[in-house]
Design brief:
Layout lengths: L15 E2 L15 E5 L15 E2 L12 E3 L6 E3 L5 E5 L8 E2 L2 E2 L2 E3 L1 E3 L9 E8 L6 E8 L9 E6 L7 E7 L9 E7 L8 E8 L2 E6 L2 E6 L16 E8 L15 E11 L16 E3 L5 E3 L9 E2 L1 E3 L10 E2 L5 E3 L2 E5 L10 E4 L9 E3 L5 E3 L4 E5 L8 E6 L9 E3 L1
Parallel strand pairs: 1-15, 4-9
Antiparallel strand pairs: 2-20, 3-10, 5-6, 6-20, 7-8, 10-19, 11-16, 11-20, 12-13, 12-19, 13-14, 14-15, 16-17, 17-18, 21-33, 22-24, 23-28, 24-32, 25-26, 26-27, 27-28, 29-30, 30-31, 31-32
């Protein structure tokens, strides 16, 4: 939920997906679960204050929103059926004042700032969103109070005028507000008809968005056109239901109140087994989910141009890979590299002297994709070969076992 959002004038990707209820069903965690809230409190009880706090007020929040966010259980409460209920109401029992005068609406906005934040991982929630013109539910993250310099990751946004569509976006310096970089996915029915699972998997130099465990958008530093990547530090989570604003427009005669966002659960998993990037050194083998074999330097001979392969995992130096702070992936003192600096499908993966070229940056996503950051393509076992000596190449990420890797 950007701070000056008007329209998604972003690079948008649209697709179609049949919606599924995700009530009480979570995907397999990318790593250990580091934080969760299942909202199993008794009916009418407040949200857990050890995990959440409130934003309150009617300032418009930079978006010309119409609601006053309160800390009342009329707006934020556990429903006794395993849900958090965030409710927007057309009421003002306390004569609350907003930026435009006497407030017309109340709602809720909760966040984990000062309670929990994390660098990288899978952030996900099962949510049944509200509906209606002028209603703007969101599940999102901020990297600090110095917006947009500290970054924003919008995991889920929806506006009443597009009830079937989820939007995922990032905002940072030079691409904030209407210039945010994002994608969307539309399904065949209103998202508010059922629970859906909204998630991002975030790792060094890569953020991937999912609806019901199906990827629909991804960004890397190459997506920013030379602008600054500000997603390598802790972020905290926010959930809210806004009323009105520049992007959704105001409620009209068709809008029914109250409108409630039901949250079944929120869970955060670690990235690659930890909440922070691995330090330099301490190399690991990278095991293929297809064959169980590891990425290997042939004959342990680190000459420039050596074509990388998969081979029986043996723990040798030729299979010990280190993710470095500059984004490179190194073994035996040299870097994994797309041959010739090419980034097209079918580009061989080789070993060469580290040279500072951005094409030598790789990241292992929480889902196990080994992604070349510049190409936004995956390290792929060519022809799905399961034998020793299978060659590696770049290819569009498709989620197959020939593109899945884990540290061993």
């Amino acid at each position: 939920m950007c701070i000056t959002r008007m329209l998604l004038a972003a690079a948008v990707v649209a697709a179609s997906l049949t919606g599924l209820s995700q009530h009480d069903v979570a995907s397999a965690a990318a790593g250990p679960v580091t934080w969760s809230d299942e909202f199993n409190g008794a009916s009418g009880t407040p949200i857990d204050g050890s995990k959440w706090k409130f934003d309150t007020g009617g300032s418009g929040w930079g978006n010309n929103e119409l609601e006053y966010y309160t800390n009342s259980t009329r707006n934020v409460v556990q429903d006794g059926q395993g849900h958090l209920a965030i409710t927007a109401r057309k009421e003002n029992p306390s004569n609350l004042q907003c930026h435009y005068g006497t407030c017309q609406y109340t709602s809720g906005r909760v966040l984990t700032a000062d309670k929990f934040s994390q660098t990288y991982g899978r952030f996900e929630a099962s949510i049944k969103i509200p509906k209606g013109q002028g209603i703007w539910p969101a599940f999102w993250m901020l990297g600090g109070s110095n917006w947009p310099a500290t970054g924003e990751i919008d995991i889920m946004e929806n506006v009443g005028s597009t009830p079937n569509t989820v939007y995922g976006t990032i905002h940072g310096p030079g691409y904030s507000g209407a210039g945010g970089i994002g994608g969307n996915r539309s399904i065949g029915s209103a998202l508010g008809d059922a629970f859906h699972q909204y998630a991002v998997e975030w790792s060094p130099n890569l953020i991937v968005w999912y609806l019901d465990n199906q990827e629909y958008f991804r960004v890397t530093p190459a997506s920013l056109g030379g602008r600054q990547w500000v997603y390598d530090h802790p972020f905290f989570m926010i959930m809210n239901v806004a009323v009105g604003g520049y992007w959704p427009g105001n409620p009209d005669a068709s809008t029914v109140f109250p409108q409630t966002m039901l949250v079944d659960w929120v869970r955060v998993s670690a990235w690659n087994g930890g909440t922070t990037p691995p330090p330099p050194g301490g190399g690991s083998m990278l095991r293929s989910a297809l064959s169980g074999r590891c990425i290997d330097i042939p004959a342990a001979n680190p000459v420039d141009g050596a074509r990388l392969q998969t081979y029986d995992c043996n723990g040798s130096a030729a299979q010990q890979w280190t993710f470095n702070g500059d984004g490179t992936l190194r073994a035996m003192g040299k870097c994994m590299d797309p041959a010739g600096g090419a980034l097209a499908n079918g580009t061989p993966i080789q070993l060469v002297t580290c040279n500072g070229n951005p094409v030598q940056r790789f990241t292992l996503s929480a889902a196990g994709d080994l992604v070349n950051v510049s190409a936004n393509r995956c390290v792929d076992v060519k022809d799905r070969n399961t034998a020793n000596g299978a060659q590696l190449q770049l290819w569009d990420c498709g989620g197959g076992s020939n593109q899945k890797w884990s540290k061993a």
